[in-house]
Amino acid sequence: MNIGEFNLNKGRIIGWIATRAIDLPKLALRPVESENELAPAYEIIAPNVGGRVVQVGALWEAVAKKTGEVFLQGHVDDPSMPEALPIALFGSVEEGYRVAWRRPERDDFGPAIRATRDNAPSGNRGDDYGFGDSTADESGGLSSQGAAADLDDEVAF
């Protein structure tokens, strides 16, 4: 989704980023001069409420794996924002940049596969689905056998 643009204007790369909750109407890209190969290519700067220019993000050069296209990738971040806004800029200094945003893929979830008797996580393939023995008897009441009975013997109340 495109959320902004940057263009060359009087020797400076200036632009804006806007979403439903964020409006950054006056942004600029300042080239970073560094020998460090991990340094960003640009700092994203903006005036704060007092008019002072502050850094609100950074961009690194990246290459698309499938097409070989060179683009800028980074984020806009500020203590006033709930979280960083990941962005990518496509284009060039001469033709201008389009600012794109994409929701990052989450990698903190396990596979989206529900356990069945065939792929149950227990070692006995479907007997207990990894949760142990039931504490209910055949009628659904609390069993005097199994895990609950063992626990009663071990823990004095």
Give a quick summary of the entry.
It comes from Sphingobium baderi LL03. The chain is mostly beta strands and 157 residues long.
Report what the structure shows:
The chain is mainly β. It folds into 2 domains: 99 residues, no CATH class; 43 residues, no CATH class. It is 5% helix and 39% strand. The protein contains 1 helix and 8 strands, in the order ββββββββα. The protein has an 8-stranded antiparallel β-barrel with strand order 1-2-3-4-5-6-7-8. A hairpin with a 4-residue loop joins strand 2 and strand 3. It is elongated. The relative contact order is 0.13. The mean pLDDT is 83. It holds the Pfam family DUF736. InterPro entries: DUF736. This is DUF736 domain-containing protein. It comes from Sphingobium baderi LL03.
Helix percent band: under 10%
In DSSP terms (H or I, runs of 4 or more residues), the helix count works out at: 1
Detail the poorly predicted runs.
Answer: none
Question: Structural class, judged by helices and strands?
Answer: mainly beta
Q: Tell me about the biggest sheet?
A: 8 strands, antiparallel, barrel
Tell me the number of strands: 8
Order of helices and strands: EEEEEEEEH
Strand order of the largest sheet: 1-2-3-4-5-6-7-8
Integer count of domains: 2
- Tell me the fraction of residues in β-strands, as a range: 35-45%
Shape: elongated
Give the mean pLDDT: 83
Terminal-residue CA separation: 61 Å
CA radius of gyration: 28 Å
Protein name: DUF736 domain-containing protein
Pfam families: DUF736
Region (Disordered): 110-157
